[in-house]
Design goal:
The structure is a homodimer. By secondary structure, chain A is an alpha+beta fold. Helix content of chain A is 52%, strand content 13%. The first copy, chain A, has 14 helices and twelve strands. In chain A, the strands form four sheets. In chain A, strands 1-2-3-7-6 form a five-stranded antiparallel sheet, with helices on both faces. Chain A has a three-stranded antiparallel sheet with strand order 8-10-11. In chain A, helix 9 (260-280) packs across helix 11 and helix 10 runs antiparallel to helix 14. Chain A is globular, with a radius of gyration of 21 Å. The termini of chain A are far apart. The model of chain A has no long low-confidence stretch (mean pLDDT 95). The interface between A and B is large, with 41 and 41 residues.
Chain lengths: 407, 407
């Protein structure tokens, strides 16, 4: 009998003993410290550290409700989903996700690598750090984790077992509501609209019926298109990074969905960083350096994704009908259109929806923040309404320039 | 302990005792007879009958391999899938599917209503029977069983649990191979091509690369688009019918897929009946009557489906974004394009693929059969290549007339 035979929500003082009982990662007489470091909405994250050696690991436990709202209950099965997909992604894209040491289905807790020496990418970007290897790393991660889990590449029966194992009703519902519904129809009154822009948001989002129709189409694709095992929440807060390495983590929203969703999320969140830099950096050369790097990186991610996707498809497609002339191009065109649309929805929901991003909310000057949000929403609508035109990195650069020039 | 606590394949002599032990449907001293009446490829079907009262029931047991090939193993889980979907369809479309009395997961056996006084529809059609209520019944069945299981109509979390429960890898693989691959790329050498047409088939199917590209696109939609809980094998051999009633059964291929697949299968199989009537009925008036009824029925099914679909959507849609202006029309247009394409694939695979249909193979005159097959393939390619134009029953009537006029 162990006190961990039945689920309870651990506190800092429980976690070191838990790790000792489960894994014996530290010497018997080690001075082990534990600190809760989570800042997400869903889980409790503890760093357990040997004070003598400095060695540390992370324990992440899934709670039974949202941290920001005890009323929003969530299946703790997301912990299992997260541990399982980290193992899959780790095998497909080695070195780009943290290592999982243990998943405990009773306590809904995962013991994993502590990504020491890395910063959460959103924090780094808000400090206007640049990451020269990011485009290379993330494009590899996207192609490997996404294309290799499709019916193009996988035995269809094994893929169907994965689809089944990653059915994720609770977390998908969050995205269905917060990304594809509430930013357009604020029926839950949960949107956070910056007051200066309330008229603009009403006109551009709440009253635009043609936009609602495209949102509805894309919502159904998000719900029904079991294309690829996607991360499902791939923003810059789900990435730990430094000048040499990139780790993608927090995949608890994972399910079989359209792969463009992940790629679009990255693009949207990078542009939030551009907005922050543009509004906050006073030194002109510094601003040009940071903002220029962001735009180069967006362009580069799209182009590198396309190039690596084509090579991978050419080399590894196993589905006979996927090899017929013209199919790879048609399939990629669909992925790229989905990507642009997803970038649009993420842009909008992070600007006016329930979960804002610090890149924007930390812009202290009201007018600059209002301008940034207008640029984001204008660009986002272009992404969604004209999603077929976003066929390469240049198209993104042009659309961004056009949206900026309007304000 | 019972001898039915462990799976074994029952013989006629086992089944009466099995029913007695499980259900006590017959009086204790009844003279119960049992006969194997299955003629499908996958299962064993027994009729159990009380000789005195004439009351009968059906026992259907799933075998562990195809009856036509012991090498092709199949998960017996399809029996559970079949029993579960019959219950769901029975609640959504009352009176249009047989009643299930028992599903036994150990023996993979289902005890169900015997549809006495009904004929397998394919048999009836080959005898050139007409069924005036069929269009009315099947259009209701299609709208109720298909639209009501989509995200338009269902709570999304409950729908995801159904998707999970109906993941059906083995039977989907059969359709992926036999419907969407082998008729175009005969890599398994399992196609049954009528020798008179071998050159025609080579030119029109094996060598047509633009057709292969559309087949590839539709194969991916079949594999990935978890739109609706479809029957998955809705041909005229899966229907028992008479002048008053229609029963749809044998849904063991069920899974969450594109709803057009079911509708297209019905249309294709009705046209096989037209071909049989056209080639076999010598009396001109009789031929006109039967073949005219078939064409009217195809047109009528499409138009009734559209009308009922619109009413149902209008009255019962629960998904907020599905109610935005223009969405229902866009969604229906997608279903209708999928329908035409599916009619095309079913037409082709039943003509040249592994599983032919008796409507065509029973045409004794070689030239007439060859002509029928050429009409079917020409029509099928029109369905697939121009699937967006099949927006009502008239479009089908015109396309059929055009294909017939070529030969």
């Amino acid at each position: 009998m162990s006190r961990y035979d039945k689920y309870f929500l651990m506190k800092e003082e429980d976690v070191a003993a838990y790790v000792e009982e489960k894994l014996q990662l530290f010497p018997r007489n080690a001075k082990v410290e534990c600190k809760e470091i989570g800042d997400g909405n869903l889980n409790y994250v503890f760093r357990v550290k040997d004070a003598d050696t400095g060695k540390s690991i992370i324990v992440k436990q899934a709670g039974e409700s949202l941290r920001i709202s005890a009323e929003m209950k969530l299946s703790t099965d997301r912990g299992r989903i997260e541990a399982d997909i980290l193992k899959i992604q780790g095998s497909l894209a080695p070195g780009l996700v943290p290592e999982v040491y243990l998943y405990d289905g009773v306590m809904c807790a995962m013991v994993m690598q502590d990504m020491v020496g890395h910063t959460m990418m959103r924090t780094g970007l808000i400090n206007h750090e640049t990451y020269p290897l990011f485009a290379e790393h993330i494009s590899t991660f996207l192609v490997k984790s996404l294309l290799l889990t499709t019916d193009v590449m996988m035995d269809h029966k094994k893929k169907k077992e994965l689809v089944k194992s990653f059915i994720n009703p609770d977390l998908c519902e969050i995205s269905e509501d917060l990304v594809y519904t509430e930013p357009f129809v604020d029926y839950n009154q949960r949107n956070n609209v910056f007051p200066v822009n309330s008229e603009f948001v009403k006109k551009e989002l709440y009253d635009d019926k043609t936009l609602h129709l495209e949102a509805a189409k894309c919502k159904f694709a998000f719900m029904n298109n079991a294309q690829s095992l996607i991360h499902g929440d791939l923003h810059t807060g789900s990435i730990f990074i430094n000048q040499e390495h990139t780790y993608i983590f927090d995949p608890e929203f994972a399910f079989y969905g359209p792969m463009g969703y992940d790629i679009g999320n990255i693009i949207a969140n990078l542009f939030f960083a551009w907005c922050n830099g543009d509004a906050s950096i006073e030194d002109k050369a510094e601003k040009e350096k940071f903002c220029g790097w962001v735009l180069d990186t967006i362009e580069c991610i799209v182009d590198k994704f396309i190039a690596k996707f084509k090579v991978e498809f050419q080399e590894k497609a196993v589905e006979r009908m996927a090899k017929v002339a013209g199919f790879a191009d048609w399939y990629l065109a669909g992925v790229l259109a989905d990507t642009a649309a997803a970038a649009g929805f993420e842009s909008i929901r992070r600007t006016v929806g329930m979960a804002n991003v610090k890149d924007i909310t930390s812009i202290t000057d009201e007018q600059r923040r209002a301008r940034a949000e207008r640029i984001i929403i204008t660009l986002a609508k272009d992404y969604i309404m004209n999603r077929e035109k976003f066929t390469d990195g240049t198209a993104y650069r042009k659309a961004i320039a056009a949206a900026i020039s309007e304000y």
